[in-house]
Amino acid sequence: LSPKIIPFCIGIFFSYTAANCYYPYLSVFFKESIGIQNNHIAAITSIGVAIEIIYLLNLTNLKKILGFRGVMTLGLFSMAVRLSILATFPTLKTALIIQIFHGLEILSMFVLPIMYLDQVSGPGFRNSIQGAFTILITVPSRLLGFVIAGEIARSYGAKEVIYAGSILSALGMLIIFVFL
To answer: Where are the alpha helices (DSSP H) in the chain?
Structure first.
């Protein structure tokens, strides 16, 4: 295995924790801070999912232009920035505009990590490394993200949970950018 997998795993751990921190509270934030009705929340987030398809179709071009590290960094940066913008300017317009960058986050969180693990593991270890990644990174980050979000929401509110997700994503992005 490549020694670069350690900073990658640390960086992506922070990013996964960020996602697991903010995502459960996003709809709460939309409703409480912006006043979006429940029946419209899914429609707004679906815009980001639809745009995500465009990013997926252009992943090869993005990797040619920016490289793996560049796309990872840009995706995690966009996650941090869009969350900060949303928490700072909680409007319907902001909620819609930030959906444009949702696809970059998905590339950096769920598509490129698997590709990277496959690349550094070699053909005989792909299933093993993905299983280890799930046990060591995905599951603990989910648990930690939920705990962080719950404690922040209990003490402060959904807005601060969104900011926490932004900070955790920025930390993950910086680790990957500097050390990968």
So the answer is: 5-29, 38-57, 59-88, 92-97, 102-106, 112-121, 126-133, 139-155, 158-179
Burial degree of 8 (CB within 10 A; 0-12, 13-18, 19+): buried
CB 73 within 8 A of CB 177: yes
- Determine which helix (DSSP H) or strand (DSSP E) holds 99, and give its type and residue range: none
Each residue's pLDDT tens digit in the chain (180 positions)?
677 789 999 999 999 999 999 999 999 999 999 999 998 999 999 999 999 999 999 999 999 999 999 999 999 999 999 999 999 999 999 999 999 999 999 999 999 999 998 888 877 777 788 888 999 999 999 999 999 999 999 999 999 999 999 999 999 999 999 998
> How big is the chain, counted in residues?
180
Cα separation, 134 vs 126, in Å, equals 12
Please name the residues in contact with 138: beta carbons below 8 A apart, sequence gap of 6 or more. 16
108: closest CA among 11, 22, 25? 11
Both tokens assigned to 56 = 């997926």
pTM of the model: 0.93
The most distant pair of C-alpha atoms in the chain lies apart, rounded to whole Å, by: 51
